Amino acid sequence: NAGVTQTPKFRILKIGQSMTLQCAQDMNHNYMYWYRQDPGMGLKLIYYSVGAGITDKGEVPNGYNVSRSTTEYFPLRLELAAPSQTSVYFCASSGGGPNQPQHFGDGTRLSIL
Amino acid sequence: AQSVTQLGSHVSVSEGALVLLRCNYSSSVPPYLFWYVQYPNQGLQLLLKYTSAATLVKGINGFEAEFKKSETSFHLTKPSAHMSDAAEYFCAVTHGNQFYFGTGTSLTVIP
């Protein structure tokens, strides 16, 4: 079972470039999430979605955009990359509801130089 | 807003010793609480979850956690540490559709 798949695993961007981080899940989960993880800071929620066509901001949405056209995919877009966006990005999915655990991908390590 | 506090960003124990990782939460309503483990270069994996069915929750790999409402705590324990337990551990609480994670505790196991 693939679970949550994130691509690419690593990427180096120049300041001002744009890119899309891909996330796919094969568990038919309605809920999907994007987090960033910085050393000593835990995980911060960027955006989340409770179903196709529905997205909402999390704690740190500035500089990012998302879309959710299907249940399976939840891409994260960086429009104008900045050094502050250097981080490890994790996508997660869950079956929904506050008592359901999240399933995580292996992350995308992004460096902005 | 909900939050969790993990006391101790780094914990070291000897192999075979008790593991105790601390987590306190703030919540105005009965919470749902989770512990996750993260191995290097991997995503987070669920260790265990508390959803009000029982105060003592058993998870994978011999870990367990006890929910104490009076102390607003959900500490993670394991009676005997193994070298393979070396990892980062995160406590999390949910509120609505969002998860709130602690800042993590890095566990080192000394042979």
Would you kindly provide a written description of the structure presented here, covering whatever features stand out?
The complex is a heterodimer of chains A (113) and B (111). By secondary structure, chain A is mainly beta. Chain A is built from no helices and 11 strands. Chain A has strands at residues 4-7, 10-13, 19-25, 31-37, 43-51, 54-57, 64-66, 76-78, 87-94, 103-104, 108-112. In chain A, the strands form 2 sheets. In chain A, strands 2, 4, 5, 6, 9, 10 and 11 form a 7-stranded mixed beta sheet that branches. Chain A has a 4-stranded antiparallel beta sheet with strand order 1-3-8-7, with no helix packed on it. In chain A, a hairpin with a 5-residue loop joins β4 and β5 (43-51). Chain A is globular and about 35 Å long. The mean pLDDT of chain A is 93. With 111 residues, chain B is mostly beta strands. Chain B has no helices and 12 strands. Chain B has strands at 3-5, 10-14, 19-21, 24-26, 33-38, 44-50, 56-58, 64-68, 73-78, 87-95, 98-101, 105-110. In chain B, the strands form 3 sheets. In chain B, strands 2, 5, 6, 10, 11 and 12 form a 6-stranded mixed beta sheet that branches. In chain B, strands 3-9-8-7 form a 4-stranded antiparallel beta sheet, with no helix packed on it. In chain B, strands 1-4 form a two-stranded antiparallel sheet. Chain B is globular, with a radius of gyration of 13 Å. The mean pLDDT of chain B is 91. The interface between A and B is medium-sized, with 24 and 22 residues.
